[in-house]
Design a protein that fits this description.
Chain lengths: ~260, ~260
């Protein structure tokens, strides 16, 4: 991981260029005001299942773009290359993590369909603008993500649990965090669960399934949002022969402004 | 067409039973407060194209449910049968209208995937509640729908023009109609065009491409919303071997309440 003075001020095009050149940083707090996305690329044979899974589970899987087979570009950032412009990728074979790499140009296939899925980092800009602290950003960590005991609605061969991202929010700011994220249904919307992590089957907040543990401040309440890593959990459960995803927290930084995903 | 005293008060289950028994009525104004949907059913081989077309064109094609192949049921109305419970269907062969029938049970196939798409009748309840007149309902007619000169974003083999529904709205209520429909992005949202029909390539409002002509009152302005008949226009342009749709204006009356599709 490379250290940058103020990644919030790096433009999306600059961020993508840095990642293309090999910087492998989690993108929380990067390019403030610009939308980051989850990537999941599957062979055309599985694309209908993924698209339907996302349609049936819009809270964790809000689709912002779908590429044509083999096409590594996206309308979310003309000129970008989804094979090289993310800081870190995961390669999946038969539902098992085959490796993490910083470039998948050599692994790309002509039948791969790339799904760009909304990310909760989008509403973080709005939370921060309202003065709601983002503990993981302040602590220089990736956001904490957890597998839950909630099953997604299956689609064809795809099934799996809901994954959530967690933010520790001061108790007197939780209602505001709900209201603010609720204005952005295209990027997960309002929380799916507030407090009581054990009800989601999360035994220990200090041991996230993805990302980093994040420390609470006194008076904080854990707030859970549906997370775009959910399709990765479905890949692990449903075992397609091949897939490529982003590494959790290492997102694609698009040219879209967060404000474009505000409802109304 | 059978005449009913007050179709607004007929429950969704009663409406579906009447249509199942053969009543073939346009459903504008029926079962007030309950969501009506457009139907498009295509073979599994075309389902990915339709699903992606809807994802890429969410204003005209907001998906509320997708069935599994061959399954004629929907989560929008448990116990309903999509093969018989709409008042009128269209059967398509190679993009050409092969016929209109009131029941498609004998034509259903085990590979058909049924898409239920949001309908502008949903926000009509909210418009009426605000005292905004619905001319087509008052005149006992189907809503007027038009092909436009705007192309949808293509998806695979599917391409075609945007179809709009038109409502004549008093000039001093247009802003309110925009605001009210804008709270319901899952059912077409705010208008795509207000006034100036010629800019959409509509030469004569008195000659709609689907539905009935609707008379304006003095001071009315034509307001255009993206319409769920758009996928039918794509079928006509893209010519899959087989498809079944609702007849324009003869919708599926679901058990979902319109309020469920309000954002936020």
């Amino acid at each position: 991981m490379t250290t940058f003075e103020d990644p919030a001020k790096v433009s999306p095009a600059e961020a993508r260029a840095l990642f293309r050149q090999g910087a492998a940083n989690p993108t929380a707090g990067w390019s403030a005001g610009f939308t980051q996305t989850n990537l999941i690329a599957v062979p055309r044979d599985w694309a209908y299942d993924v698209l339907l899974f996302c349609q049936r589970n819009p809270r964790p899987c809000p689709i912002l773009d779908v590429s044509d087979p083999g096409d590594p570009t996206t309308i979310l950032a003309p000129g970008a290359d989804l094979r090289s412009d993310l800081p870190q990728y995961r390669v999946w074979e038969n539902g098992t993590l085959a490796g993490e790499v910083s470039d998948v140009s050599g692994l790309w296939r002509t039948d791969l369909v790339a799904f760009s899925i909304g990310c909760s980092f989008t509403f973080e800009t709005a939370l921060a603008a309202a003065g709601i602290p983002l503990r993981h950003v302040d602590q220089g960590r990736n956001v904490a993500m957890y597998l839950t005991n909630r099953a997604c609605r299956p689609a064809g061969r795809l099934h799996g649990p809901l994954v959530v991202s967690m933010r520790q929010i001061p108790a007197d700011r939780v209602a505001e965090a709900v209201a603010i994220s609720g204005t952005m249904p295209a990027v997960h919307g309002s929380p799916v669960h507030i407090g009581a992590p054990e009800e989601l089957g999360i035994a220990d907040l200090a041991k996230p399934d993805f990302g980093d543990p994040v420390d609470a401040e006194p008076g904080d309440v854990p707030v859970f949002w549906a997370c775009g890593v959910t399709p990765q959990a479905a890949l692990m459960a449903s075992r397609p022969a091949f897939a490529i995803t982003h590494a959790p927290g290492y997102m694609f930084v698009s040219d879209k402004r967060d404000d474009e995903y505000r409802a109304g």
